[in-house]
Design a protein that fits this description.
With 568 residues, this protein is of the alpha+beta class. 21% of the residues lie in helices and 32% in strands. It has two domains: 102 residues; 456 residues, Regulator of chromosome condensation 1/beta-lactamase-inhibitor protein II (Methylamine Dehydrogenase, Chain H, 7 Propeller), CATH 2.130.10.30. The strands form seven sheets. Strands 1, 2, 25, 26, 27, 28, 29, 30, 31 and 32 form a ten-stranded antiparallel beta sheet that branches.
């Protein structure tokens, strides 16, 4: 067979045999890739088809340029068209399988819409656009509901409905044009990004996996862990798995991990028994921290090698307190207990811990109780409780309910240089939390109750310089539920999605998604444009055909934002 192939390359008489063998080889590659979907994931099939087709067509074009006779040129052109047709049909089939694999049970308009900087090709994978000014759908995710989605500085991460981890962006692989399945079969539930690594929590809360963010590091790890025995390596193609490791979390019997949160250099882990663990993230040891770990002895480690990365420490100060929620900014941490008390620790360079900045409070290494009652009464006699906390960048938010008035107010502290405070002012730092009046004590008249009722805040997502808040004003629209959300803060990278670059220092309703309109924004005129600009973007919720509950969720990243359908 080898002699036949060698002679067919040089002898025109057998060139058609070589062409036929190459064509059959391409078909076999696609059959193998089709049966390898369960190993690689359906997303890889389109990439395999496109890459192999491009390489083979490039070889055919080179051979065509070196053919001399007209008959050989015609035969080569016919082979190129045949292979292009096969590659195109298989690639289209793979793309169709990629869509229908997840879209068979989806609702209308389910997908992922992103906007902001495209410096690392996160908001528009495979496209040369420098930025996405208004919400635009990522075609790959059309019809897909997700468990979680995270936008990082260098890459994006998503967890599919079946718990597989997907990744895209230049920080992962600059040559990849679509998201790729990185880890499958682990039934993941949520993920965070820190120090260029992915930390993913399983849905049942028993493990936290660590995955390198770069495809190159993942592949290098595969080579290091590969079994050298020939009878084992024969099946490596069908049993490929990316390099990952699991953190050693000291859990007791029946204890599970409830939540993870991460900053730029640290991560917090919360268990269902109220315990909190912290660690340095990444692969390199740290020689000092700013107190965000909550362990004073780790504030400045003089031992050789510094603080070991990914080694967990329990925060002893919170040991007898039942913590129920975590939040992490760049270099600070916020926790909330079951009684509505808030504890903060870490860097206070912008007042993000809720305390006025002084030389003594530049950083606080021990969890300190935040006096929320003094926000309403300087004597500290107000009856208040915190309902949720949020953090990002150098900013922290607290939803505090005044039991006397039975209304919740949104308070904010930290950096407000880009308008994050939502008060109309631009402040470099703010220690004592100030009230975001546009999102405090919101009420509307209820016809069924015959009196004003409260509109609480469902959740808040905090980016590096901008914030989004989702209101819990449920309005029924057919079989769907509609919720409004507001967005404000920095907009230099179009992360507010309004097509402009000016910052918004006050919470503002977002307009309807441009990508869902029948015409592009620049083609709208008169009443159509007025109706679009006056329409408010609402987040929907409902059920899939199989009864799975889903709702649109907004998430803010360092340089962009996204809306995706989250399944519960």
């Amino acid at each position: 067979m080898y002699d036949l192939l060698s002679s067919s390359r040089t002898c025109p008489r057998y060139s058609h045999i070589f062409d036929l063998i190459c064509t059959l080889k391409m078909i076999s590659y696609r059959v193998i890739s089709r049966f390898s979907m369960r190993v690689y994931g359906v997303a890889d099939v389109a990439c395999i088809s496109r890459a192999s087709a491009c390489r083979q067509l490039q070889i055919d074009t080179t051979r065509l340029a070196h053919t001399s006779t007209k008959t050989s040129q015609n035969r080569a052109r016919f082979v190129i068209l045949l292979r292009a047709a096969i590659a195109g049909s298989v690639g289209a089939a793979a793309f169709y399988l990629t869509k229908t694999h997840y879209a068979e049970q989806a609702l209308d308009n389910i997908g992922v819409y992103v906007w902001g900087s495209n410096r690392k090709h996160i908001t528009a994978p495979g496209l040369p656009d420098a930025a996405v000014k208004t919400p635009r759908e990522i075609p790959y995710f059309h019809g897909m509901e997700l468990r979680d989605l995270v936008l990082g500085e260098d890459f994006g991460v998503a967890i599919s409905a079946n718990g597989d981890l997907l990744q895209w962006g230049d920080g992962y692989d600059s040559t990849s044009l679509i998201p790729r399945v990185v880890l499958s079969g682990k039934k993941l539930g949520s993920a965070v990004i820190s120090q260029g690594k992915i930390y993913a929590l399983t849905a049942d809360g028993d493990k936290v996996y660590c995955i390198p963010g770069s495809k190159r590091q993942q592949d290098l790890g595969d080579l290091e862990m590969q079994d050298k025995r020939w009878y084992i390596s024969m099946f490596a193609f069908f049993s490929r798995s990316k390099t990952f490791s699991a953190l050693t979390v000291p859990l007791s019997r029946f204890e599970k991990i409830k939540q993870i949160a991460a900053g730029d250099h640290h991560m917090l882990i919360l268990t269902n028994k109220g315990k909190v663990f912290s660690c340095i993230t990444g692969d390199n040891p740290a020689y000092s921290t700013e107190g965000q770990l909550g362990v004073p002895i780790l504030l400045e480690d003089d031992e050789p090698g510094g603080i070991e990365p990914e080694k967990l420490y329990e925060i002893a100060t919170l040991r007898n307190i039942n913590i129920v929620q975590l939040a992490a900014g760049e270099c600070h941490s916020i926790v909330r207990d079951d009684e509505g008390h808030v504890w903060s620790f870490g860097s206070n360079s912008h007042g993000q811990l809720g305390f006025d900045y002084t030389l003594e409070t530049a950083f606080i290494p021990i969890p300190s109780l935040l006096p929320l009652d003094k926000l309403y009464n300087t004597r500290g006699l107000a009856d208040v409780t915190c309902e949720f906390v949020a953090a990002g960048g150098n900013t922290s938010l607290f939803s505090v309910r005044n039991r006397k008035k039975n209304l919740a107010d949104l308070w904010i502290s930290g950096s407000g240089l880009h308008g994050q405070h939502g008060t109309g002012r631009y402040l470099h730092m703010q220690g004592t939390p100030i009230r975001v009046r546009a999102l405090s004590g919101i009420t509307e008249f209820s016809e069924s109750a015959g009196q004003p009722t409260e509109i609480p805040i469902r959740y808040v997502s905090v980016g590096k310089n901008h914030i989004a808040a989702v209101l819990d004003n449920v309005s029924e629209s057919g079989a769907k539920v509609q919720r409004e959300f507001m967005i404000w803060g920095g907009n230099s990278l179009f992360q507010l999605g309004n097509g402009r670059r000016s910052n918004l220092p006050r919470p503002t309703h977002m307009h309807s998604l441009i990508s869902l309109q029948t015409k592009p924004e620049h083609e709208l005129e008169g009443e159509e444009l007025t109706a679009l600009m006056n329409s408010r973007r609402q987040l929907s919720a409902g059920k899939t055909k199989r009864g799975r509950k889903v709702e649109e969720t907004v998430v803010c990243g360092p340089e962009g934002s996204a809306i995706y359908w989250k399944c519960t």
